[in-house]
Amino acid sequence: MGIISSPQSQQNKKRPTLWLDLEKLVSNKGTLFVTNTLDELEEALMVFKQCGVTVIAINGGDGTISHVMTKAVKVYGADELPGFVPLRGGNFNILADNLGIKTGPRRTLRRLLDVFNRTTSPKQEKLRTINVGGQIGFLYVNGSAFRFLVEFYKNRGNAIDSAIHLAKIALSKYYKPEFYDSVAHDTSAEIWVDDKLVFVHKSAAMFISTMPRMPWGLNIFPRAKKSEGFECVVYHNPPRETVTKGIVDTLFRPHESPYRSTFCGKSIRMKLGEEAGYTLDGELYFPGTGEMEIAVGPSVSFVSL
């Protein structure tokens, strides 16, 4: 067993010595690396491969997991990937929630060790990934939702803080309209799914996922796991109503909103009317272009706990 611990995740910044507890727990049954850079991460994975590590636990957030997956594909190869376990070391832990992992890093690692004590071939669940410019992940977001995350990251907090921040942005429409419009505006969009033009409209925000649930358990991708690829959700409500109507629709009628279009596929190409920053599993990217291609990535196995 191997463990990757990222000191860059917000939870690990609050608990800088947590990795020592995890190292004591795993004892002689595995090896833990604290990785500060992507080069250090790749070196750790190369050691794991040389030592025959078949399961890697990740103490970090969703962004850390995305980086580990991407480097693991490079080191192990897409067809020889080890199994993984997220230890809930981030703020939102969307992947862990979708896998039903609710406990913190210490308890989750103890559960993993218990599984290894019972069997050398634990049961695993496979999830498809998406490939965005060579980066492997599970959830892509752009538009107003991306710009909200940019504002939220200026004063990072937990999921409750994000809900409060989202409410402030929605209310800013009435007392700070210039700020509201800078976050909640739409842009022209042309979207091709599996080489078929499916959307020509104004897009307020786009979500692409292979997982069914968003933060707070919101099941806005009911077809994601049933499809052979991913589910894409595009919100296209009027710009000044983007946040308020988007919140209402997502909470109370996520599958019936007149402001929502959904598509399933294995590849997607988009052409937007502005440079489209985006987030992949919580990490922010600024590609400097409004054109983007996304495809289904390799399937990844996660140990069932």
Commentary on this structure:
The strands form four sheets. A six-stranded antiparallel sheet has the order 7-6-17-14-9-10. Strands 13-12-11-8-15-16 form a six-stranded antiparallel sheet. Strands 2-1-3-4 form a four-stranded parallel sheet, with helices on both faces. The protein is globular. It is built from ten helices and 18 strands. The protein starts with a strand and ends with a strand. Helix 2 packs parallel to helix 6 and helix 3 (about 40-50) crosses helix 4. It has two domains: about 1-120, Probable inorganic polyphosphate/atp-NAD kinase, domain 1 (Rossmann fold), CATH 3.40.50.10330; about 135-300, Tumour Suppressor Smad4. About 35% of the residues lie in helices and about 30% in strands. By secondary structure, it is an alpha+beta fold.
Largest sheet: 6 strands, antiparallel
Q: What CATH architecture of the largest domain would you give?
A: Sandwich
Class by helix and strand content? Answer: alpha+beta
Domain count: the total is 2
Main β-sheet, spatial strand arrangement: 7-6-17-14-9-10
Q: Report the C-alpha radius of gyration, rounded.
A: 20 Å
Count of DSSP strands: 18
Helix content: 25-40%
Distinct helical segment count: 10
Topology:
Elements: E1 2-5, H1 10-14, H2 18-26, E2 31-34, H3 38-50, E3 55-59, H4 62-76, E4 83-86, H5 94-98, H6 105-118, E5 124-127, E6 130-132, E7 135-137, E8 139-142, H7 143-152, H8 159-175, H9 177-183, E9 187-193, E10 196-203, E11 205-209, E12 230-235, H10 242-252, E13 260-265, E14 267-272, E15 278-280, E16 283-285, E17 291-296, E18 300-303
Parallel strand pairs: 1-2, 1-3, 3-4
Antiparallel strand pairs: 5-18, 6-7, 6-17, 8-11, 8-15, 9-10, 9-14, 11-12, 12-13, 14-17, 15-16
Helix pairs in contact: 2-6, 3-4, 8-9
